[in-house]
Amino acid sequence: MSKGKVLIVMSAASVWERTDGSKYPTGYWAEELAAPHEKFVEAGYTVDFASPGGVLQPLDEHSADPAVAGQECGRHVAHARKALEEFGSLLKLDEVGIDDYVAVVLPGGHGPVVDLFQDADLRRLLAKADKEGKLIGAVCHGPAALLSAKDEDGNWLFAGRRMTAFTDEEERLFGTAEGAPWLLASRLRELGADHVEGAAYQQHNVIDGNLFTGQNPASSTRLAEDMITALR
Predict the structure, then answer these.
(1) Is the keyword Lyase in the record (predicted)?
(2) Domain that holds residue 181
(3) Mind listing the pLDDT tens digit for each residue in 184-222?
(4) Which pTM value belongs to this model?
């Protein structure tokens, strides 16, 4: 018997338009999707996948490159593909209610800075989840999705909270800072987050009440483990 359901919300974006009008291909980052899915399933939870319109993102090919994503990336890619294939059609975000879930997880890839950061359906879902104290986890560029959660007056619901996310330094090292419409860590700070940085590309996780964040792909496993511990 399942201990409860966890919702993984993916972006639907496959391109990230740059300030010069060029289009940078993006997709889900294998480890950030696979590691939480694997950990939650191992711990006895049922995991659902949703996205805007139920659109399945392509894989971010960088996350399948051992030179970029590490020697374990092949295993993460295989797990992510199998999990998505077995789940079938993604749920449409506008048809999902948070009442069915004990937690929501927001993985990265650059997609969340394209669509989820201003998604009205995610705004509704996150606002209710936070109000009810349900666990919210976000890793790497996933915290961009938190930006969607604003009240009727446009105030950001996560202002003042401690969190981490892919840093401006990591974006520069990755080669995607120049030409980015905006940088995630800077935007989070501008809007009032207490953004806490760790060393570039090293596992770094922050917990603030029901909010769990990880800085980069290497923080994905710990994110899920911390959330599972809290759910116990």
Answers:
(1) yes
(2) 5-231
(3) 999 999 999 999 999 999 999 999 999 999 999 999 999
(4) 0.97
